Amino acid sequence: MAELQNLPPSILTREDGATIAYHRRRGRGPGVIFLGGFMSDMTGTKAVALDRFCESRRQAFLRFDYFGHGQSSGAFADATVSRWRDDALAVFDTLTDGPQILVGSSLGGWIMLLLAAARPQRIKALIGIAAAPDATEDLMWAQFPPAVRQTIERDGSARIPSAYSEQGYLITRKLIDDGRQHLIMRSAIPFDGPVRLLHGMRDDDVPWQRSLALAERLAAADVRITLVKDGDHRLSRDADLAMLMRTLAALLD
At 41, phi and psi to the nearest 5? Predict the structure, then answer.
């Protein structure tokens, strides 16, 4: 996979001059779009494995970096859920055609659902991997100790320790406030196509019960949840990736 991880990206320029880095593989439909997680990028294990899988099937595939992530422009301190949703819409509208299957990992599962709500006629199916809708409110703000919330309110940001970053995650008041405009777990979610939710039961970041709650809110009847008892948040082991590819193949076939 190293050669895919090191390929120079293509660039999509937004109206405001910001740039989105992406890798697009042309092929047959339906296309597949990977939506990465919080502070992740398109060179991650799942993104590259999906690219390789789609290459083997001559399937159209797209992966990209959100604003403030990876090789796209922008400072993470200026990022919001609105911006990431709009990035996803920009690449969707500009770089894809025909029906698409969305694969959303962690916070990317939230962006996946927002994209499906905006373009329902073109979304064939959804795959959530530890999907984290409403993450800024329910998994960040509601879980922060009072002292951290006070720091964010007073200073505009705080750095939160993370197992995935030595510097921790920068959480801004702008991110939290903007996220409240996009909460979707408070009511029914109208998407009615096939949905597959994969979740590790040893996920310390997004409780696996989150996938159960999401399934309850989806209008779709064809919703299946796969729980991996010894799986962590990333679900990036060989067996996890094989499960993901089987899930995608079944939807494509």
Answer: -145, 180
Spatial distance between the Cα atoms of 169 and 49, rounded to a whole number of angstroms: 26
153 within some domain:
no
Look up the domain containing 230 and give its range: 2-134+190-252
Domains in the chain: how many in total? Answer: 1
Specify the CATH number for the domain of residue 129.
Answer: 3.40.50.1820
pLDDT digits (tens, 9 = 90+) for 136-178: 999 999 999 999 999 999 999 999 988 777 788 899 999 999 9
Q: Residues 51, 134, 203, 205: which is the catalytic one?
A: 203
Catalytic residue among 23, 69, 199, 233: 233
240 carries an active-site annotation: no
Catalytic: 69? Answer: no
HSE value, Cβ hemisphere, 13 Å, CA-based, for 121: 3
122 domain residue, yes or no: yes
- Overall pTM surpassing 0.90 (yes/no): yes
Catalytic residue among 23, 106, 138, 205: 106
Is residue 182 among the annotated active site residues? no
